[in-house]
Amino acid sequence: MAGRTKYLLDEDDLPTQWYNVVPDLPEPPPPPLHPGTREPVGPDDLAPLFPQALIAQEVTTDRYVDIPGEVLDVYRLWRPSPLYRARRLEKLLDTPARIYYKYEGVSPVGSHKPNTAVPQAFYNAAEGVTRLTTETGAGQWGSALAFACATYGLDCEVWQVRASYDQKPYRKIMMETFGATVHPSPSDLTQAGRKVLADHPDSTGSLGIAISEAVEQAAGDPNARYALGSVLNHVLLHQTVIGEEAIKQFELAEDTPDVIVGCTGGGSNFGGLVFPFLREKLAGRISPEIRAVEPAACPSLTRGRYAYDFGDTAGLTPLLKMHTLGHEFIPDPIHAGGLRYHGMSPLLSHIYELGLLEAIAVPQQECFSAGVRFARTEGIIPAPEPTHALAACVREALRCKETGEEKVILTALCGHAHLDLPAYNAYLTGQMVDNDLAQDTLETSLAGIP
Amino acid sequence: MAGRTKYLLDEDDLPTQWYNVVPDLPEPPPPPLHPGTREPVGPDDLAPLFPQALIAQEVTTDRYVDIPGEVLDVYRLWRPSPLYRARRLEKLLDTPARIYYKYEGVSPVGSHKPNTAVPQAFYNAAEGVTRLTTETGAGQWGSALAFACATYGLDCEVWQVRASYDQKPYRKIMMETFGATVHPSPSDLTQAGRKVLADHPDSTGSLGIAISEAVEQAAGDPNARYALGSVLNHVLLHQTVIGEEAIKQFELAEDTPDVIVGCTGGGSNFGGLVFPFLREKLAGRISPEIRAVEPAACPSLTRGRYAYDFGDTAGLTPLLKMHTLGHEFIPDPIHAGGLRYHGMSPLLSHIYELGLLEAIAVPQQECFSAGVRFARTEGIIPAPEPTHALAACVREALRCKETGEEKVILTALCGHAHLDLPAYNAYLTGQMVDNDLAQDTLETSLAGIP
Question: May I ask the CATH class of domain B30-66+113-231?
Fold first, then answer.
């Protein structure tokens, strides 16, 4: 199997357990706190928002969690996903590096998001919930939850960040085709939305605001729960099918990654790919560098503060210890809508603090330049989010060209850009700008951390 | 391998030859004629439009044609494509039928079109051509050729049918991302286009007009050639990788199709899937019913005339013996842009006349209804074109439910709808109408056949 263009696994090789990195870490991550008492939150605090099964997964210290058969049956529609060797990109870059990408765009909605949407919908349906609310940035998560809800017969209501709602009308249609209802956020349907609109009638929204709206709606309806597409432990847990498959695929390729790069917004695609490799690294079996790549316009790991902060703008969530730009931070409307989040997964933030991964921030034009090169060689037009990983991958491959090192680079290609093509149009027609975060804007926003 | 959700082949199982059905037919298809002399056209007549290798493939009587290694290397980016068992759709329909679909949406552009775009670009590049011109309806073919030209370093210029150009702006961006130049058709860049615009300034265009424009441009530039995405023998030849793979995959599934349904516009996806199965049927090894499904608004097989007619509107092509609605026919702007062609592949037309396949026409709302059911069970939102095949598949499955027959249905799912989502929006919001072709319109158009 060495020497192939792609490394495929059969349905029998689908992982049957998710991997929980927490028990393998040298110390556990700090717990979420109740904003009033500043005491660790318990299951009862989370019960209005999440079903019991997911609350249990959020705090479990088991190394492995079984994947229900009903979830595996849906995963089988697109999983295992392929691992590619980017031979044509390597040739274009004239690099001695070997570049691999794990491609999640084969899912029904074109990204990694259904990996967690499906089990989240399953566990909610199993506990009698009939309606799920959520936010969506780029629209990938909303589409994924819409598909998952169609699968298990749940109603699905999505607050889509206004910037994406306007830039990406096709995403709304996809969600509606799967049967969901979509609102732009901020909306006048919630107190949180109305408050933002009163202060900023032209608000382009943010994930933080949209989360406030969806949380508020779920908390007010006993038959409804809320679903989050990233950030939380159980979300990253579900995504580890990516990394588990990739490890098997590297065995087929008879190769081992030296550098693993992925984009980070809330951190779920990155964590999903990286955690199984981190397990192997902590056990001393491999020693890859692990590199998170974030947008220069929303650099939570590289320029944020590691502190307890709210996950949403209105302050409805528990306090999470994470790298944050401040919960009131509204990122510029860059095209990578899925990376426009003020915070970072607490678990990834903790791992970063432990020194187990590094992080860089990249401006968006460099990212789209890498995306176009990738499309013209590998055929896949990458979503704006993973162009950040590709930009870092190109940097590394060109470094290898200078030094002659034959490094093995693994890139998380978490989705395609079919519904994000206006972003490429902006890039190709010279209408894209690099929105670096100004220091004074950052300081104002950091001052809002409670 | 029986009992799976999907049947995958490895790169080693990629077909290394295309299959030519012509020598296996009881009689050969009638040749194309020169419009002036009404004599069969020779290679010299076609040389201004196509490279020698493709002209040779157009008339070959060899049963198999080797696929060049350079083409296989690009096919490997997405081929072999998966064969799925639609277990969740079967359950929804409560049918004893077993439904399989061969999914071509895994290609870089989301359809079967790159299967022929890649070899066409390869052979042109090998003979020193530097520029390819073409038309595109739904945009799938233009995207495929844009990708293929990027792969071999050719310039690519696409005339996109105005109705699709306006309905599907994302397609244009995809073509441009791959490096192509895109014009709406009719355009004022060609004599053919200017003539149409003079008579019909608001023309929504047609494949026939767009072909005239692309052919005119290629014929006027010695470094350019023209590429066609369907209809011709060499195009259908290249598409037979679909059927060859499907036959191997049915062996893995330990099953045999009783009914094969596919949509027909120019006929390339249908021929590509069907011809290898037809070989097996003609050899007496299997006996499936083979059913072409066309839109009620553009029913060339079911309501057209079997006659010599032009392939384009302006009358620049050789005369082709085919089922045609008349070369001046302009179909209503239905959403299945890829099926808006006045004629049908001469080879498929001939096979239809031989009684080796049947044909039905289906109105578009029934098609989109099937498409939504499919999306909500199987997760893939089908392109408007293959919703026609799915509508026929649903009809057959529901017939089986009534009769209790456990038929095995194979459907050609030739692409996804990511760039066609406005069509689903029209359907979901009740803005879609069924444009059945009026008899008097048809008779006027048929009168234009030379």
Answer: alpha beta
